[in-house]
Amino acid sequence: MSRTSPKEHAKRFAKILKKETPEPDYNYLREIFRYLRKTLDIEINAEPKRLPFVPSDTEIRQYYDAVWKKRNMLHMVIIKTLLYTGMRISELIRIKLEDVDFDRCQMRINQGKRKKDRIVPFPVTFKETLALHAQMIEKRGGTHLFESTWKRPYSDRGIRKILTHYTQAAGIKQSISPHKLRHYLFTWLKKQGIADAMIQPYSGHESRKSLEIYSKLSLEDAQKEYNRVINNFPI
């Protein structure tokens, strides 16, 4: 007996569901298929999770050495911002001048992943360089922290192209992407003995297991721990 195509089964199934009131939504369908799997004793073939590549301290120093040799101030500020804050590339390109608080050494991320707002810290030692860059953007009438001479925010592709250029210049085999810089920061902070509960408020990560603990922490507590160790950062 030949197997009926999934498309035909879907058509028959849809005819039955269309008669129901209210019409089924995604969650309802997901529950149906969960019970189908259970009834037919079908196991989910979960793919093994691979550990992300995290650059070593040596590779980060080698990488930034290539950036330094080019003496491109804009590129230095972009890469240091990614390294110091751990923000995602989609968040970086949307940061506006008004989102930077130089007094508190913080940046506000509006509508980050899962449409959530959060605050990320940056080192006091980075404040002057960042302020000079922001002043230059403001003088030419710009609004975003990182934008082209045409007053347009950098694109995701544009930032990745910059980072790839320095990966090649540094002679590093594994490409250094914005997300790998993010992984590096949080891995480095962990190595300094900072607990997950102190990293979470500005990482943007969620954890159901630790939600109760995280909710009791303030950014002020988290930033104190960040400031305590960040002066030892390789860059």
CATH topology of the largest domain, anyone?
hpI Integrase, Chain A
Q: What order do the helices and strands follow?
A: HHHHHEEEHHHHHH
Low-confidence stretches: 208-217
Query: What structural class do you assign from the helix and strand content?
Result: mainly alpha
Radius of gyration: 23 Å
Q: Please give the count of helices.
A: 11
Q: What fraction of the residues are assigned to beta strands by DSSP? A: under 5%
Strand order of the main beta sheet, please?
1-2-3
Number of strands: 3
Structural features, described:
It is a single chain. The N and C termini lie far apart (66 Å). Helix 4 packs across helix 8 and helix 9 crosses helix 11. This protein has 2 domains: 31 residues, no CATH class; 174 residues, Intergrase catalytic core (hpI Integrase, Chain A), CATH 1.10.443. With 235 residues, it is mainly α. The protein is 53% helix and 4% strand.
Give a nutshell description of this structure.
The protein has 235 residues and is mainly α. The protein has eleven helices and three strands, in the order αααααβββαααααα.
Question: What would the keywords be for this entry?
Answer:
mainly alpha; 3 strands; 2 domains; elongated; 4% strand; single chain; 235 residues
